[in-house]
Every structure is written in structure tokens, then in C-alpha cells.
Specification:
This protein has about 375 residues and is of the alpha/beta class. It is built from 13 helices and seven strands.
């Protein structure tokens, strides 16, 4: 006759799953991933320990990592129904990944944590309890009393503090750590903010707080930021750029689309390049004006294309052969935009308006044309 032999590991796993099926879902933990294969297993084990007293699920949102992260998540999920995967192909970005993960769950409270294990998962339960007790939002903070940035270099600490001060000043938030990516939120508060979200860059917490139609009740829970468990940090200058874009979007984005603002800013830089090349070609290369002007147009348009490809349309960036076919389409579209600029300016000037107004309106029409058509054709999704 079969005799059952006690095993602590399986008994604990059985107890946890029994709780999961016996009680309503209480917390969903959203974990965006890109090339985090070696961190996934450790993350799941730590969540099991930290959240053993409640009914939870973890939703990994992977942007088609080439290192096999999605396969590793699927492997774990096959034996644990609390682990789920949203596998995104053709879509990138941490903020949009977090939003998709949140919307994939029906849990009344949703938390967000990084996959690199730098956030202290042991305070997840405290974040959940704070929301359960009545707060709209509970934030893991490095800067409140009891929190720490750990072993950061002075340079990284200075950048973080500067970003925190800038966000608090520009957007008027009172959070001690508005740059945090570690928090829990009540579903109702999330859904109220959702229509206004920018979903730009990495600072989804800041986006939610500023997008909320009402003042959120917030509780902060201090923790110490840790070193990455495995893999390479994704912090780079692009993240700083996306933070700047988020600030722009939340201040003037309701009047001017952020992408158009960037496109116009690149165009303004291109104008300076155009004038510099024109001056060099006339004064040093001694070209005719027509030749100098043509060279300046080609150089400035080429520069604008590559800068826009890296910055303005970073999420739709063209690569390989597409980089060069995109350049040809950019030349053609902006060439037509230039013709529209001159033609409309000439019509307005001939109607008796001042030269500067005619030039300004022509330039505005050309810019709108270039932005609208290159968005649809050169950098189509």
C-alpha cells in the first residue's frame, strides 16, 4: 500500500496553490522584461516567498527578447498557474509593456517591479497592504527616511537626484521618488488615469500620477536599491531623452504633439546645419550659390533624417536596407514639402503680406507636411 512521505517543499507548494484556488485574486505583479532570462527563475522564487500570505499572480511582459526570456517564463508557467506571459512582437517600450501587463489582469491591486531584482520584493506585501487599507497608490522609495540608493556611483546618484528635482518642480508632484518604477496601485485609480497616459519612456509611475484626473492618496514605503542580480544595465542616454520627452508631453503635449515638437526641433537644428554648410560652400569652397544651396539642402536633410530616426522615431527606427530606402522616401517627401513651402509663401507674399509672415506660413505648412507624411510613410508602423 502506498505510504505518503512528508516533504516540506511539496507541502509548501501545495499549500500555496490551495490558497491561490480557494481565495479571490488579490494582487497582480507586472514584470516587464527584455533579455532577463537568468533573472526570471530567481524572481519567481522570491515572489513565492514574499507573497505567500496572499493570492497573487505574476505577469511577465516580454518584448521578444533574443536571449530566450519568453521561453524561460513559459517553462516556469507550465508548472505554476500563477505565472503568466504576455509575449509582445513588434512592440517595444517599458511603459507600454507595463500598461499591457496591468490590463491583462483582473486583480484589484496591481504592482510593478523590475525583473533585474534591484527592487526589494520583500516590501511588495507592504505596498499591497497600504493600498488594501485605503491608499490609491503605494510607492517603493529610495529617498524617504529608511530608504537608500545602495552602492550607486556619485555620478549616477547626482543624475537621479537632478531628475527627481526636475520632475517635482516641473510637474508639481510631492513624491520623494517620482522616478521610482516600483509601486502598487488600486485598479480604479489606474483606469481613471489610463486615457491620459503618455506611455513614453520608462517613468510610468510619474506618468500615472500626473495623468490622474484627481489627487491620489499616496503612501511611501522605503527600501534599499540593490545591485542587478544578472545581466547588463539598460540605463543609457536614450532613457534620459525619453524622460525629457515625458516632461514635455505632460507640460505642452496637450497643445502640441510631443513627436511633432521633436520633429520641429530637429528641423530647427537642420536649419543651422544648412546655413553652416551654405556659408562654407560659398566662402571656402567657392561654389556657385545654386551648387552651395543644393549641397546645404542635401546635408541638412540627411542629418535630419538620421537624427529623427534615432530620436523622434526611436520606437519605429529603420535598420538595415530599410534605413536607406527610408532616406530616399524622406528626400522625396521633404522635397515636396520644400516646394509647398516656397509656393504657399509666394502666394501669400503676392497677396500683399509682409515677407516675414509669408515665409513663416510657408515654413509652417512645409513642416506640417513633412511631419505628417513621413510619419505615415517613412516611419510607418
Amino acid at each position: 500500500m502506498f505510504a505518503y512521505q512528508k516533504n516540506d517543499f511539496f507541502d509548501r507548494a501545495y499549500d500555496e496553490l490551495a490558497v491561490a484556488f480557494a481565495e479571490p485574486l488579490q494582487l497582480a505583479v507586472v514584470i516587464p522584461t527584455f533579455n532577463e532570462r537568468d533573472n526570471v527563475g530567481e524572481m519567481v522564487e522570491r515572489l513565492r516567498r514574499a507573497l505567500r500570505d496572499i493570492n497573487w499572480e505574476a505577469i511577465f511582459v516580454d518584448d521578444n527578447s533574443p536571449d530566450g526570456t519568453a521561453a524561460r517564463i513559459s517553462e516556469i508557467a507550465a508548472s505554476d498557474p500563477r505565472i503568466r506571459l504576455v509575449h509582445r512582437v513588434g512592440r517595444v517600450g517599458l511603459s507600454s509593456a507595463v500598461v499591457e501587463g496591468m490590463l491583462a489582469s483582473i486583480a484589484p491591486v496591481v504592482a510593478v517591479i523590475d525583473a533585474d531584482l534591484q527592487h526589494d520584493e520583500t516590501i511588495l506585501l507592504s505596498l499591497y497592504r497600504a493600498v488594501e487599507a485605503g491608499s490609491d497608490l503605494a510607492v517603493g522609495t529610495r529617498y524617504a527616511d529608511g530608504g537608500s540608493i545602495g552602492s550607486w556611483s556619485e555620478q549616477r546618484a547626482s543624475v537621479s537626484r537632478a531628475g527627481t528635482r526636475l520632475a517635482r518642480t516641473v510637474l508639481g508632484t510631492e513624491l520623494s521618488d517620482p522616478m521610482s518604477g516600483f509601486f502598487a496601485i488600486r485598479r480604479e485609480a489606474l483606469m481613471a488615469a489610463l486615457p491620459r497616459l503618455s506611455s513614453i519612456g520608462y517613468k510610468i509611475l510619474l506618468d500615472i500620477v500626473v495623468s490622474s484626473p484627481r489627487q491620489l492618496s499616496i503612501q511611501e514605503v522605503p527600501y534599499t536599491f540593490r545591485e542587478r542580480f544578472s545581466g547588463v544595465s539598460k540605463l543609457d542616454t536614450a532613457i534620459l531623452l525619453e524622460f525629457a520627452l515625458l516632461l514635455i508631453d505632460k507640460t505642452i503635449g496637450r497643445y502640441i504633439p510631443t513627436r511633432f515638437f521633436m520633429f520641429a526641433a530637429v528641423g530647427g537644428f537642420g536649419l543651422l546645419v544648412h546655413l553652416a554648410v551654405l556659408a562654407f560652400a560659398l566662402n571656402f569652397a567657392h561654389l556657385s550659390f545654386w551648387s552651395a544651396q543644393a549641397a546645404a539642402v542635401v546635408v541638412s536633410m540627411t542629418g535630419n533624417y538620421f537624427i529623427n530616426n534615432q530620436l523622434t522615431y526611436r520606437d519605429r527606427r529603420r535598420k538595415g536596407l530599410g534605413l536607406f530606402t527610408g532616406l530616399i522616401s524622406f528626400y522625396l517627401i521633404c522635397g515636396l514639402g520644400g516646394a509647398a513651402n516656397v509656393g504657399i509663401g509666394e502666394l501669400i507674399y503676392a497677396d500683399g503680406q509682409t515677407w516675414w509672415l509669408a515665409g513663416l506660413i510657408g515654413a509652417a505648412v512645409g513642416s506640417v507636411w513633412n511631419y505628417a507624411v513621413t510619419s505615415c510613410l517613412t516611419w510607418r508602423r
